[in-house]
Design brief:
This protein is mainly alpha-helical. It has helices spanning 2-9, 24-30, 42-81, 87-100; strands spanning 15-17, 31-33. The chain is rod-shaped and about 65 Å long.
Length: 104
């Protein structure tokens, strides 16, 4: 998760990381900063953690929704268009998928 937080703060940052640092001392020892932009401090990373976790959760939900819409909702939509199902069945499936994979 630390790499995601770093990438959240410094998109496409260039660095080398050994393991998953869990504190400021490990961060200093295990991360080699190769990017010309300033390296975030441990305090910067801790402050950005909630936003990065939310962004990661929303990206996962979006990917899951995308796959579910393709596999489950799209067939109902096309069946409705052909007159083989109802619009409500399609709308209900869309609502169910959104509830199953909510954004935070």
């Amino acid at each position: 998760m630390l790499l995601q937080i770093i990438q959240h703060l410094v998109p496409n940052a260039e660095l080398a990381m050994v393991g998953e640092p869990g504190n400021a001392d490990e961060y200093a020892a295990q991360v080699t900063w190769l990017d010309p932009r300033p390296q975030p401090t441990w305090a910067d990373l801790e402050a950005a953690r909630p936003a990065a976790e939310t962004a990661a959760a929303n990206a996962t939900a979006q990917a899951n929704r995308h796959q579910a819409f393709i596999a489950e909702a799209d067939p109902l939509y096309f069946a409705w268009q052909r007159g083989e199902s109802t619009e409500q069945a399609w709308l209900d499936k869309c609502a169910e998928i959104r509830q199953r994979y909510p954004y935070t």
